[in-house]
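Quick one: structure for this chain?
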Amino acid sequence: MLQFREKLKGKKAYIVSVLMVLVALVNLITGDMGLVEFVASPHLQLLLEGLGLGAARAAVASLSDSKKEAL
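Got it. Here's what it folds into:
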């Protein structure tokens, strides 16, 4: 169990953001809505939140890596 937790260390936010993006895209692809309806629906918000979460996590990782190199 500890090995599994060690493998997930630092990757949980990326996994959640990828799943959020996948759910939004699946709703667009398999739904009965077109692109215009998708833009007006909460699924677009989910997509943007997933992308934002991934970008924020990447920025935090980048900053922590640069601080480690400075030490």
